[in-house]
Amino acid sequence: MKNTQQKQDDSTKIVGHLINGEIHYSTGPAQDVFNPSTGEVSKQVQLAQKHIVEDAISAAEAAFPAWRDTPAVKRARVMFRFKELLEQNAEKICQLIGEEHGKISHDAMGELQRGIENVEYACYAPELLKGEHNKNVGPSIDCWSEFQPLGVVAGITPFNFPAMVPMWMFPLAIVCGNCFILKPSERDPSSTLYIAELLHEAGLPNGVLNVVNGNKEAVDTLLHDERVQAVSFVGSTPIAEYIYTTATANGKRCQALGGAKNHAIVMPDADIDNAVNQLIGAAFGSCGERCMALSVAVAVGDEAANTLVSKMQEAMKTLKVGAYSDSSNDFGPLITKEHQEKVIAYIDSAEEQGASIIVDGRNIEISDFEGGYFVGGTLIDNVTPDMVSYKEEIFGPVLQVVRVDTMQEAMDLIDKHEYGNGTCIFTRDGEAARFFTDNIKVGMVGINIPLPVPVACHSFGGWKRSLFGDLHAYGPDGVRFYTRRKTITQRWPSANIREGAEFSMPTMK
Ligand code: NAD
Predict the structure, then answer these.
(1) Atom of ligand 1 nearest to the CA of 157
(2) CA-CA-CA-CA torsion for 322, 280, 384, 412, nearest 10 degrees?
(3) Widest CA span of the chain, in angstroms?
(4) Which residue lies with its CA nearest to atom 18 of ligand 1?
(5) Which residue in 18, 215, 220, 391 is a FRET match for 124, CA 20 to 30 A apart?
(6) Do both 371 and 384 map to the same domain?
(7) Which of 255, 258, 96, 257 is nearest to 187 (CA)?
C-alpha cells in the first residue's frame, strides 16, 4: 500500500480508502467515476484488492478491544460531535452527492437529514444498551441479559443513497461497540468517504471505522474472512441473495435488503388531487432511483383510473428535469449510461407488449447537458401483470398504471409480486385502510403516505424478496443485529443459604 495521509485530497481526483484513520492510495486497479449530469469522467475510484481489505479488517480487529471497553456514553459523545459536523458540512456533502449521483441539492439534503436522524438515534446508546435485569429469580439469585458487541462487522451499500444508507449502518454498529468496515458503491464514493472522515474529526479512534472502495473482490473478501462477524447489505435483490447465502454459509450474521416494486392503491373515494401530488413526488423524485419509489399505481375502478391518468398527465407538464447543479429542478439524471439504456428498454417493452405510453420521457433533451443520462417522467397506462416492465424493478422515473375492479384484486396483485418493500393506499375510508394494513404482505405500509420510510426509532425492512434475514435495518432491530445477547445468572451464597448438591434440573419449586 502506498501514500497514506490524513485526508482525502480533492485535487488528486482519485478516491482512495480510509484505513486506520488514514487515507490510502494503492497501486491496484481503479475505475472511472462519472458526473451523470454531463456524462464526463470526474474522478477515479480505487478498487481494493484482497490484501487491502484484509488490512482494513486487521485495523478494525486491533481497535476492537479498546472500543468495546469504552463506556457507551463516551461512544455516544463522538456521535453528538459527528452530528454537528454533518450539519456544518451539509453543503459540501450534498455537492459531492450531486456531482457523482446526480441528485438535486434539495433531495440530497433530505437524504442527509434522514442519515443524521440515524446518528441522533445512535446518541441514545446508553439507553439502548442498558439490558434487562431480574432480581431474585431464585433465592439470592439474580439474572440479567446484556447486549455485547459482535466485533468486526461490515456494511455494503448501494449507489442511490451514498450518505443515508451507510448511516443506517455504521453509527449504530459503532455505538454498540463494534468496529466497522464499509464498502460503499463504487459509482459515487466521494460523499461516503468524506462523511467517514468527519466521524474521525469528531473523535472516533483510528480503526473503528474503515472504508474500502471496490467491487466484487472487496465484497467477497469481507464475506469469506472469518474475522468478520456480521454483514449488512443494501442493494439489488440478486446481489442481496448472493450476499445472504454466502455470508450465512460462512457462519456470519447477515441482513441483506434488496430491490422493490412499490404499488399504491388509488381507491375510488380517494382525494385524487392529493394522490396525484403524492404520486408525482414519490414516483419521480430522485429520478425514481429509490427502493421506496412508487412505481405502480393500482387504480380501483375505471372512473378513478381515468381521473388519475388525466390529472397525472396534466401535472407532469410542470416536471422540471435537469442537472444536479440547478436546485430548481425536480430531479436529475440516472446514475449511468447503461442504466439510462435499461430504463428506456423497459419503456419500449411496455409499449411492445400493448401498454399505452401517456407521457413519454425517452427522448428528453436538456440543453447544455446533452451528454447527461436523463430520462423524463414517464406515465404508462393499461399495464398488465404479465408485462416485463411490471414484473421487474425499473429504478427510473416511470409510473405504471394497472386497472382493477376491486380493492381485493389490487391487494392480490401486490401480494403476488415477488417484492414486498413498501406500499400505500390512498383512501378516505378508515375501515378499508385498516383491512389493508392488517392483511397486505409488505413490510412498510403507508395510509395516504406515499413513501412510508420508517423514522430512525423504528426499523426499515421489506418482506418477501426485498429482504433476506430476520432483522430489519436501523432502529431497535439494528441494535439487536449489531449486538449479541449474553444472559448471566448469579448467586452470592450467604451463610444462611447454603444448599447441598442438586442433581435434578434446577427449578423454582
Ligand atoms: P447493486 O446490487 O448493484 O450494488 C450494491 C452493492 O453491492 C455495491 O456496493 C456493489 O459494489 C456491490 N456489488 C455489486 N455487484 C456485486 C457482486 N456481483 N458481488 C458482490 N458485490 C456486488 O445495487 P445498486 O445498483 O448500487 O443499487 C440499486 C439497488 O439497490 C436497487 O435494486 C434498489 O432497490 C436497491 N436498494 C434497496 C434498498 C432497501 O432498503 N431495500 C435501499 C436502497 C437501494
Answers:
(1) 9
(2) 140
(3) 89
(4) 216
(5) 18
(6) yes
(7) 96
Same-domain check for residues 71 and 220: yes
Hey, what amino acid is at 416?
K
- Tell whether 28 and 167 lie within a shared domain: yes
For the question of residue 457 being annotated catalytic, the response is no
The region, left, alpha or beta by phi > 0 then psi within -120 to 50, assigned to residue 21 is: left
Q: Which of 114, 157, 215 maximizes ligand 1 atoms within 8 Å of its Cβ, making it the mutation to test the pocket?
A: 215
How much is the pTM? 0.96
Those residues whose C-beta lies under 8 Å from the C-beta of residue 446, and which sit 6 or more positions away, are 422, 423, 424, 425, 452
Instruction: Give the total number of structural domains in the chain.
Output: 2
Distance 184 CA to ligand 1 centre (A): 10
CATH number for position 113: 3.40.605.10
Give the three cell numbers for residue 354: 400493448
C-alpha cell at 296: 405502480
Q: Verify whether ligand 1 is closer than 6 Å to residue 160 (CB atom).
A: yes
In DSSP terms, 331 is beta-bridged to 321
* Average of per-residue pLDDT across 473-492: 96
CB 350 within 8 A of CB 387: yes
pLDDT band at 505 (very low <50, low <70, confident <90, very high): confident
The DSSP symbol for 11 reads G
pLDDT, tens only, 43-94: 999 999 999 999 999 999 999 999 999 999 999 999 999 999 999 999 999 9
Distance CA 147, CA 200 (A): 25
Atom of ligand 1 nearest to the CA of 159: 26
**Per-position b or e across 196-219, b if 16+ CB within 10 A of its CB:** bbbbbebebbebbbbbbbbeeebb
Q: Is 232 found in the same domain as 336? A: no
d(CA 270, CA 425) in angstroms, rounded, equals 9
- Does ligand 1 lie within 6 Å of residue 215's CB atom? yes
| CA gap 462, 229 in Å, rounded | 23
Q: Is 452 in the pocket of ligand 1 (CB under 6 A)?
A: no
Q: Decide: 358 and 364 in contact? Cβ < 8 Å.
A: no
Q: Which mutation among 161, 183, 188, 219 tests ligand 1's pocket best, with the greatest number of atoms within 8 A of CB?
A: 219
Among 143, 291, 424, 457, the active-site one is 291
Percent of the chain predicted with pLDDT > 70:
97
Task: Give the closest residue (by CA) to ligand 1 atom 35.
Answer: 235
Q: Which three cell numbers stand for residue 221?
A: 473478501
Query: Which domain, by its residues, includes 136?
Result: 2-258+466-487
Q: Please state, rounded to an integer, the average pLDDT across all residues of the chain.
A: 96
Between the CA of 236 and the centroid of ligand 1 the distance, in Å, is 4
* 316 in a structural domain: yes
